[in-house]
Design brief:
Length: 381
Amino acid sequence: MYFWSMQDAHSPTVLEITNTLDAWAPFRLQAGYDNSGLLVGRPEAVVSKALVALDCTEALIEEAAERGAACVIVHHPIIFKGLKRLTGRNAVERTVQLAIRKDIAIIAIHTNLDHAADGVNHKLATTLGCDPASLQILQPLNDQLVGLTFYTPNAAADAVEDAVFAAGGGQVGRYDECAFRLEGQGSFRPLAGAQPTIGRRGERSHVAERRSEVVVPRWRLSAVLAAMRAAHPYEEVAHQVVALESAHQDVGAGMVGLLPAPMTEEKFLDLAKSSLPAPLIRHTRLLGRPVQRIAVCGGSGAFLLEDAVAAGADVFVTADFKYHEFQGADGRIVIADVGHFESEWRTGEIIQAHLEEHLNEKFPNFAVHLARENHNPVHYR
């Protein structure tokens, strides 16, 4: 999370827009190869208008300048690898140069939004007709959870737990304020220089305390610990943080869900083609079975094929399958390659909706628009 003090009460800064996206789809959730975040621009720049698109191109920067937008938010990072020079020798360098000249910030929100529970794959699955209540992450991320245990005098235990919950601790799936509690007795002896709330220096105290255990996402740990300390009556808070091997079921790659009712494979492919829309769909051999359980992955999703099969999906909707990767279906599932752009083109809608929901009330002068320049680089005949 980044920090910056506000200077304009009516429009957010580039940094505040970045923070809003980070709170929604934390940048630490991005894949190791990715480069999401603020890529170009001054964090302190004030933004009254922003554009949203799938890709950052010279045409997009020109449109932003024409429409008076000081920031563009894109799904795909314009900079994936380090730039050793800016000479304008290719489209990436020219686009970055143009953004700098026009003083337009570029923010990318890529695989972290792919991994968010209400991100790219949620939008793709619901566009295809899946019931939102049925959706589950196809490949949950590991190493994203910690266990926090803390000890509080009984009289203050509820207040400290409430602070931890409010900061994001204790959420498990569709449940929040989840904790395990155990009553016991704690002991301590304040040393020289201590300012004990209970007891006296040099004397051991015994206090009725509550042991509370909660699960915390790693990206919220700092905020949860700060809230715990602020609410706790002790100057030294006894606590421990333990890494958990449990996968985080609410963040990860791909999704799987159910259509309201079964349909034929042909009807589903026609539905996908018209709802995305996709000019064509490359797919494996149809299996002559009813379709209801659908796995999805916006963008390149071949790495999730076995997860889709293991989840019992009838069809796997994704993009960028190579010739030999189609053979991996092996009569177990129908792979439907709808195209990279087609699987992600509605991503801009959820970015726009989220920024409007979380910024417009605080910043009435801020507007976010879908870019007109948002075209598929792949053409069909």
